[in-house]
Design goal:
The chain has nine helices and no strands. The protein is an all-alpha fold. The two termini are about 25 Å apart.
Length: about 200
């Protein structure tokens, strides 16, 4: 159980990457007043949290209906997460496409799109929730640990958004890039382990 807790916490931490959200948030908010920034941060984290929790609850039954095995999901999730880790480690991570960025600047409220989805709750987060939910295998204690880890990282994300300006100034672009690349290396190791475990399960 402690190993699962550490894995869940690290996975959400590196995938959501709270420090990496800060410069994106500053760019999206621009010259908006501080109170509006606080409201946007609260709404974005709440929407992302509800979406991921719903996916955690509904993802397992969906996989069972489709007949997808846990080992197959491990391999698929590991490959997807490794692709994200590769881009993070090489400093090539893009949280949104140019079209999404342009659309965001045309909207008054950026809390749901693109901040909540796909910046906080992106493909990697959905894949992680799905893999970890199936790892919990219906055990309530493990599912509770998963939710606790997710909510902890979402709280860190909210704090990162609230102090985005000061965090960006303190770490600088270089500092944030270093943090993101280190997290990318950790995520790559987790992804390789997922693929290895899944492959052994499929072959066994």
């Amino acid at each position: 159980m402690p190993e699962f807790a550490v894995t869940a916490l690290l996975t959400f931490l590196v995938i959501i990457d709270p420090p990496g959200l800060a410069p994106v948030f500053v760019a999206l908010m621009g010259d908006h007043p501080g109170e509006n920034a606080a409201r946007v941060a609260r709404k974005a984290v709440a929407v992302a949290g509800v979406t991921l929790v719903f996916f955690a609850a509904a993802g397992g039954p969906l996989l069972n209906y489709l007949g997808v095995s846990l080992d197959a999901l491990r391999v698929a999730g590991g490959i997807l997460l490794f692709g994200i880790a590769w881009n993070m480690a090489l400093g090539q991570r893009k949280r949104q496409t140019p079209e999404e960025a342009a659309d965001a600047h045309e909207r008054e409220d950026v809390s749901v799109f693109p901040l909540a989805i796909p910046l906080i709750a992106g493909p990697g987060a959905f894949a992680s929730v799905l893999v970890l939910t199936t790892e919990a295998n219906g055990r309530l204690a493990y599912f509770g640990i998963l939710l606790g880890a997710l909510l902890s990282v979402l709280m860190l994300s909210y704090l990162s958004l609230r102090v985005a300006g000061r965090l960006t100034d303190a770490l600088g672009r270089t500092g944030i890039n270093v943090v993101t690349r280190v997290l990318g290396i950790v995520l790559a190791a987790l992804a390789v382990q997922l693929v290895a475990d899944g492959t052994l399960g499929l072959l066994g």
